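The material for today's practical consists of a large collection of protein records. Getting from the letters to the tokens is the skill we practise here. To make this concrete, we reproduce a full record directly below:
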Amino acid sequence: MTGFAAETQTGTADIAARHRFDELALGRWMERNVAGFAGPMTLEQFKGGQSNPTYKLITPERSYVLRRKPPGALLKGAHAVDREARVMSALGSTGFAVPRIFGACDDDTVIGTAFFVMEMVEGRIFWDASLPDVPRHDRPAYFDAMNATIAALHSTDRHAVGLADYGRPDQYYARQIARWSKQYLEDVEAGRHPDMDRLIAWLPEHIPAGDEAAITHGDFRIDNMIFHPTEPRIVAVLDWELSTIGNPLADFAYHAMMFRMAPRIVPALGGVDLDAANIPDEQSYLAAYARRTGRTDLASYDYAMAFNFFRFAAIIHGIKGRLLRGTAVSAQAQERADAFPWLAQLAWEQAQRAGAR
């Protein structure tokens, strides 16, 4: 099994031919819409990112980040950069750790697709969840920072920050299972897998009782956070494309998937000796989240895990489809597409852990 390759995700490179656009048109838009902008401006493309092409805009005074929909045929509802800009703007007003949004554009005639421009936040991104470059005695503080940040997100009043209509507050599991099942089934080019078909049948029949609603990130992983250059503190949470109003325990379970999978395509902790690494185990990490959010009922946690492995496998299935259609963003799309059968199997194993037969 191959490990997650940080060098393929870190830094910038020349813009890929399929992701180039009219840079002069962007410069004119920046002059009109971004206060304090002054050229000349040069562009580079970030290596990471599976869904939305992301660029570094460099000027003499400061750097910015541009995130856009990819060109080409897209699945309905995917690549929602407008939602990313909205949720970050709303959360930023509370002091939550997100980049500042300078402007957003839904006019496809400017650079070919919708986009937004945000602050370039400096700091550290960790591509290895075991934190080998962090002193052993400091590692618990980094995990505690992630735990506190996701708990704070789920405790944010969506009404107070103007996100009451950001998503439906009911039937989260049912809607998400239907959404990802539909996307999986309709993406005929990417093929089928028997474990995914089993999950599509099992998950809707075993949805936990009760509805919960909170602002959820949808992709809360260690590599989607920027940490302070020297402190165990998160200064920005990135990649909000999958954010919505959803089930907070499900959102946390997605984050905690790192404990149950190997670091094959994303940073994870499978195979790591947590005691030796001085990293909290899954149960203590879950307990810390429960304390911070006041949660006492964790009975549906294993179901939430099974759902998230299914959802993650469906996302990777979508990357496989985009690769076959020629619209995949990242140079690592092939590696992720190749991992789809492995993830589908992991997802069904989690369902069995939750009681599936």
User: Anything to note?
Assistant: The chain has two domains: 6-119, 136-353. The first helix runs from residue 23 to 33. The radius of gyration is 20 Å. Residues 6-119 form a domain with the Phosphorylase Kinase; domain 1 fold (CATH 3.30.200.20).
